[in-house]
């Protein structure tokens, strides 16, 4: 079981690491961080580098593909090597997944047509332009396509997928190991729950 | 405001990235990933490399210090450059923080003596050997020392600290941006909530 995490300049670190530190604990799984070229890949704020171990051309048949989002995905949501790679590996993947605006990248590759899918709340409606059906749930499974909402939702996605693949017990064991017993100090994690003026401010930045 | 994230061979990626992708969104903050030597630092399962931008000697007065945990912290919890650096930067830091077994590293440096502190649930009692008072809360603040429980708790810690530093509104805004509205598919994130046999299995590995 090979799990490929796509990296590209401008990705959000937590989008990748949430699924990584859950899915990588699947017994027998092999992970690979993959990018157009091996080496450090910078995040969206250019403040962090995560090392891609392999080039796209070296990862041809991953069982699971994980596509993190980023503040600006336009660079990889246009025709090019990443889009071609996504279509190629999707042809044989067991699960094709995304976190946050990663779903826009999958959408641009034509992989979410007619599928229920989610994204970061600020990008949710954009999914429709790729023929997907935007769904405001935190983790959406439609066939082999698993999309998660913004940034931190990749942890919920990882545990959900672990349960599907290896059973509840394995997923619960990983949840306990990463002590995922969330206790946010505020209840502002969705546009429905956050103060309206904060929601409006973020919408205005788009 | 400089926020230094300590990296060392064997760290847990999510321990570092949870606080990173919350605290780094503090307006005006500068982050630095720091290790004994600059360059890629491998995680606990040797499956991922995160790039340290600076050597310990280059980061002398961070305002906030974040120490992630790892499955085996013995290498950095013994006398050496990391321990000396921690004591030095703690002398002038505004906040000294840890996630997971990062508190054992702070404890070994003598920084948690007489302090209420927490750690990964499997390591909690070990804190007492450093003169700390183990506390099973998810985020513990005692003076300028902020310790968080296992792995995923670094997100709660980051938001809590953001609130202390910049006010509730900034913390809520970041919570909304990272869409931290957790919906774990199971309720097994603490030893009190997980199935007893899974808890026993993890305890047996220690």
UniProtKB/TrEMBL annotation, chains A, B:
One of its GO terms (molecular function) is transferase activity. One of its GO terms (biological process) is regulation of DNA-templated transcription. Residues 2-162 form the DJ-1/PfpI domain. Keywords: Glutamine amidotransferase, Transferase. InterPro entries: Class_I_gatase-like, DJ-1/PfpI, INH-QAR. It comes from the Bacteria. This is Glutamine amidotransferase. It comes from Streptomyces albireticuli.
